[in-house]
Amino acid sequence: MSLRKKLLIGAGALVAAIVLIVVVATFTVGCGYHNEPLKAWNPDTGYRHSLFEYVQGPDDMVLALAFSGGGTRAAAFAYGVLEELRDTEVIIDGQTTRLIDEVDFVTGVSGGSFTATYFALHGERIFEDFERRFLKRDIEKELVLSLVLSPRNWFRLLSRHYNRSDLAADFYDREIFDGATFGDIQDRGGAKVVINATDLSTGNPFHFVQDQFDFICSDLTGFPVARAVAASAGLPPYFPPLVLDNYSGSCGFRMPAWLRQSLDEGRTSFDRRSVGARILASYLNPSVRPYIHLIDGGYSDYFGIRNPLTAARATADFRGQSRLPRRIIAIVVNAKRESEESWGEIDKTSSVSSVFPIIANVQIDRYSIETLELLRSNFQLWQERAKEAGALLDFHIIEVGFAAARDDAERDYLNHVPTALTLPAEDVDHLREAARRILRQSPEFQKLLLELSRPIQSSIR
After folding, report:
1. Separation of alpha carbons 397 and 309, rounded Å
2. CB 417, CB 383: distance < 8 Å
3. Which DSSP helix (H) or strand (E) runs through 401?
4. pLDDT in tens, 34-44
5. The Cα angle at residue 253 between residues 214 and 192, in degrees rounded to 5
């Protein structure tokens, strides 16, 4: 065979390969998931989050769990708290119950959203298979292999509508959450979950409840929980933003009265409520914001407690409510490591790549302190509103974090567990046991157990 003929054959094969790639890429342009539009807005339907819906049963108690970010370190630490709640029995109004059966909702961020979502989906089944399906699994390796060994994924990633976050979401959907949607959680009738991400455009928390999706006229009911978890755990630059379509204006959504009032009163104000109102209102202009880009929830709220409580604060008028909570309990599970770097001892210029993670961690630390203070102020506000309605409200905030470990060696161990999707099995077990011990030894938790055994007044005499 002549050289010219060989070159022609080689060139033809190359052209054919290029054509194949272009054709496949063209057919996979629409392969990315698109959130569904909401046909008609109804404020009384859908996967919603409201303080008063959790007031049920003889105890009138609302128990909420907040699971922080921190990769599998956070997921394992949160899992240990669930184990301790499972094994803690109390007597409430003469009835013996386990605290895990009293959990009304759990909010999760980043790594903590895996545990929070699995618990909301399956309840106690989490103790049967969550270790195998997530905690003690080499997720990082499997994600890489799902790309390397799948030609289909090679072509899908050529599309501008499919990125590594979509790849991760599909993997979580297939391997961990079994295609479950928010509608499945609602149908189960157990604890609800609020999964939290960060809106890249505003830096504000974005939480996966229908109240948030109303603003973009999208239906959360059929939305895969795996995609919400992928958004919440989408740490840049490893995972690009996960994108939602904004259909605002197509479903008949009406701006809530409290939001309109906040906008009218805060046109020149920069307080938290006014700024939050303007950010929410920005979703109502799809010509300016046709797409919502979501990244790791830890950047805006490391505990996932700002948005759900801010929404409740805006609407929680206790007067006229047929049922009022007597106790509100928040167990905040904080898997944040203490900062190890002392920049005051370094006398040289550092690279941007080494400085950026430190800046992010410092800001998360400071913001987290402010978040817990906001939680306390919200609870105090609710106490005042309950008093105006003629009721008494008791509340407890219990923080379970590494700093509370009594043993120096254990605290040092916990602070050196990395933020990763894959951890050695011994680290997972150590985190679980540490979480159980820290919760059990918490003075505030012991105080709660004592008070739960005694009835409290439900109204002011």
Report:
1. 14
2. no
3. strand 394-401
4. 999 999 999 99
5. 30
Longest dimension (CA), the chain: 104
CA 185 to chain centre: 15
Q: What values do phi and psi take at 114, rounded to 5? A: -65, -50
Give the residue ranges of DSSP H helices in 149-219: 151-156, 164-175, 182-188, 210-213
Pair of tokens at residue 224: 């895969």
Strands (E), 171-290: 192-199, 205-207, 242-245
Beta-ladder partners of 90:
97
pLDDT digit string (tens) for 121-139?
A: 999 999 999 999 999 999 9
**Terminal CA-to-CA distance of the chain, rounded, Å?**
104
Contact between 60 and 324 under an 8 Å Cβ cutoff? The reply is yes
Q: What is the dihedral of CA 310, 316, 317, 320, to 10 degrees?
A: 170
| Tokens found for residue 318 | 């206790």
In the numeric block, which tokens belong to residue 406?
A: 């009594």
Q: Which helix (H) or strand (E) holds 91?
A: strand 89-92
